[in-house]
Amino acid sequence: MRLYENQPSGTVDRARQLRRDAPEPERRLLRAIREAFPQLKWRHQAPAGPFYADILCFSERLVIEVDGDTHAGEESRDATRTAIIAREGFGVLRFANADVMQNLEGVIARISLSLREREEALRVRKGEGDKT
Prior knowledge:
Helices cover 48% and strands 19% of the residues. It contains five helices and four strands. The protein has helices at residues 11-20, 24-36, 75-87, 97-102, 104-125; strands at residues 43-48, 51-57, 62-67, 91-96. A four-stranded mixed beta sheet has the order 1-2-3-4, with helices on both faces. The protein is globular and about 45 Å long. Pfam families: DUF559. InterPro entries: DUF559, Endonuclease_DUF559_bact, Restrct_endonuc-II-like. Residues 13-115 form the DUF559 domain. This is DUF559 domain-containing protein.
């Protein structure tokens, strides 16, 4: 997946602007993720192919999207975006602003479950999984 290498001119400036203008639910989730999983590096508004991922962790190959009101009626566009990112080998988790603001613990628990599932799948692929 392309990050900044070979990106169009203005990519870095656009990412900075998106970080500055990030809505409160996105900022709140990023803080909570960094607190809950301090051993991982979380990027905010990082280029991911032709898109900017709200929150991205390269080591875990995970993209987290926080969908606000602007995503209403954009389900097919979001599905296309998710498919493109998934083709690059990244898992994509989507949460609504309301979920982040009203159930942050549940959102963090879902992310934790996803990280454990991805870790287990990797172990199985490497032949280290449970052989019982």
